């Protein structure tokens, strides 16, 4: 079963690579941001990161292209709550005033991102966070089992940085910017914690209303 799933994910990743940005597009985007443009790049868990990984690498960010599971409330969970100690120091998290301050954000699986020099880990992954290749492996971890996994300590699920004269925010989880109904979980996304304010502040920073 796991072997069949890995083969299927490999096929999806190969298909995603076909739709990734060309080198010409990547160069054009990079030059535009360097001159003062803003880039918001939101990806998600495997296989979606495959389509965006080449563009991310051009900005110095490595995408984990997997499924992240972290210890929450004494158990492994794909719902990751970033509290004050996990949030970086950045105008996006401060907002324009106290009412816009971000205190906590929740993500829903997603993948990990590296934090390049000069970048701020907006949502820093906890030290015990792990990344696995498949959703089956993630499920096994959540049930308390053991599978092959890699530590993603020191990585993040959202980063922000200057690139030349421009601004960049990258996120490794898409669900926290959306509103979804997931069987067994109910409604998840923007209504959770300060997710909506976080999303607004990201746009405000990229548009230069903040900072």
Topology:
Elements: H1 2-18, H2 23-34, E1 38-42, H3 49-58, E2 67-72, E3 75-77, E4 79-82, H4 91-94, E5 105-108, E6 120-124, E7 130-132, H5 135-142, E8 150-151, E9 156-163, E10 166-171, E11 179-182, E12 186-189, H6 195-206
Parallel strand pairs: 1-10
Antiparallel strand pairs: 2-3, 2-7, 4-5, 6-9, 7-8, 9-10, 11-12
Task: Describe the 3D structure.
With 211 residues, the chain is an alpha+beta fold. It has one domain (2-206): Rossmann fold (3-Layer(aba) Sandwich). Helices cover 30% and strands 26% of the residues. The chain is built from six helices and twelve strands. It has helices at 2-18, 23-34, 49-58, 91-94, 135-142, 195-206; strands at residues 38-42, 67-72, 75-77, 79-82, 105-108, 120-124, 130-132, 150-151, 156-163, 166-171, 179-182, 186-189. The strands form four sheets. Strands 1-10-9-6 form a four-stranded mixed β-sheet, sandwiched between helices. Strands 3-2-7-8 form a four-stranded antiparallel β-sheet. A two-stranded antiparallel sheet has the order 4-5. Helix 1 crosses helix 3 (49-58). The longest helix is centred in the first third of the chain and has 17 residues, at 2-18. It is globular, with a radius of gyration of 17 Å. The termini are far apart.
